[in-house]
Amino acid sequence: MTADAGREIYTVSRLNREARALLEEGFPLLWVEGEVSNLARPRSGHLYFTLKDASAQVRCAFFRNRHRPGMPALADGMQVLVRARVSLYEARGDYQLLVESVEEAGDGALRRAFEALKARLAAEGLFDADRKRPLPRLPRAVAVVTSPTGAAIRDILHVLARRFPAVPVYVYPTAVQGEGAAAQIVAAIRRAGRERRADVLILARGGGSLEDLWPFNEEAVARAIRACPIPVVSGVGHEVDVTIADLAADLRAPTPSAAAELVVPDRGEWRARLARDRERLAQAARRLLRRRREGLEGLAARLARQHPRRILRQRNQRLDEASLRLERAARALVGARRRRLELLAARLARQHPRRRLAARRARLAELRVRLGTAARGGIERRRRHLAALRAALGAGGRRPLERWRPRLARLAGRLDGTSPLRTLARGYAIVITPDGRILRDAAAVRAGDAVRARLARGALDCRVEAVHRGETP
Questions:
Q1: How far apart are the first and last CA of the chain?
Q2: Treating both helix axes as pointing N-terminal to C-terminal, what angle do 106-124 and 219-227 enclose, rounded to 10 degrees?
Q3: CB of 101 closer than 8 Å to CB of 212
Q4: How far apart are CA 242 and CA 442, in angstroms?
Q5: Partners of residue 34 on adjacent β-strands
Q6: Where does the Exonuclease VII large subunit C-terminal domain lie (predicted)?
Q7: 340-397 confidence digits (pLDDT tens)
Q8: Contact 216/185 with Cβ under 8 angstroms?
């Protein structure tokens, strides 16, 4: 590989090498049917030929170390079924098959019969996923239907003993190939289902050709698997071998050992899980106990707060406080009412008619004295003025008197116009209340009150019959 301007450049060798790795890793061991042509037998003992059908062909390499006694002698035009891996011949860049084994074309007929039965049972719904039953997490026991002398039972027992030795195993022996093997397999499955000593059943045998595995491709075996009352795990052949039993089973394992791995848990994992579950359970129990203890303490505190004795003491204390507040409120109310009564009594005393009448009488007497004084002062001033006028008249004759007469006439007219007597002479009256106030508003008296009406000549003592507020004459 060289670098050119940041590009990765492959050599042809590297390209073919990585292409071969991709082909070999990308395809499993598989069966291919076709016609042999261009068969070559070099001195090395390896066989090279082309396998073809009506529309395509592929090169095949069958190395000498893969030859088995009893294998068919290959010849051009022979119809064969090869078991091979996909690869690439790096030197020429040829895509090819590396053959592991070869079977005659008769196996092709078996393959077609297999495909026909598979299609018919699939159409019937025998292989549907919704008919598959789950396996128990930890079975009480495991039933195994297989040959008691084959390698499969040894592998299964070894794996079960290693993973979970506490689970008992019941082996139902049967032939796993040859004539009558299918009937024995069906009988063993039915017996295991009838006895119900196990929670799961393993149907197993080692690898082999399609003909060797044919008892597991019988319709009776598939129907026995579906009719079995306990879940069935199929571990027939190798990973590339797929049988009707594999399709009908509740779970397919690639090998018998893998089937044993699937039916029981690993004891180490279970111990770790049990330890984790035990710790979580202990933590949950501690948390529950703590919550319950806290809840109990809370309830005890609430009970103490809500105890009748405590409530009664609180209610008694509140009653005492309410009694004291009521007593203080009553005293305050009585005091307020007493002060209000005293205030009203004082106001009543101030507003009593006798007191007001006495006040009005005193006021009237005062006003009479002031009026007398004012009248006397006015008369005295008028006398002095008249005396001055007379003196002036005596001294100056009639001409000064004539000079003062218009002014005196104006003053007399103004005095006569403002005199209340002149108003009374026009038919009006001055109404005086018993306390001496001049009545100006009808709202100041009530019906039944006594009043005095002063006229131009004389006065009338009257009693109010009705009060008309807001009316004008």
A1: 137
A2: 30
A3: no
A4: 129
A5: 80
A6: 126-462
A7: 888 888 887 777 777 777 777 788 888 878 877 887 777 788 778 777 777 766 665 5
A8: yes
CA atoms within 13 A on the CB side of 21: 5
Q: Is residue 67 domain-shared with residue 170, that is, in the same domain?
A: no
Q: Which two tokens stand for residue 395?
A: 């001294």
Do 99 and 68 touch, CB atoms closer than 8 A?
no
Query: Domain for residue 445, yes or no?
Result: yes
Tokens of 68: 């088995």
From the CA atom positions of the chain, what is the Rg in Å?
70
**Is the distance from CB of 96 to CB of 80 less than 8 angstroms?**
no
Q: Is residue 188 assigned to a domain?
A: yes
Please tell me the pTM assigned to this model: 0.44
Domain extent, residue 201, equals: 112-265
Tokens of 298: 């809370």
Cα 67 to Cα 100: distance, rounded to the nearest angstrom: 8
Beta bridge partner(s), residue 94: 89
Contact 30, 10 (CB under 8 A): no
Residue 150 resides in a domain: yes
Q: Which residue has the tokens 């309830």?
A: 299
Instruction: For residue 420, give both structure tokens.
Output: 């209340």
Reported as a single tens digit per residue, the pLDDT across 177-227 is 888 999 999 999 999 999 999 999 999 998 877 778 889 999 999 999 999
Q: For residues 450 and 443, what is the distance between their CA atoms, to the nearest angstrom?
A: 14
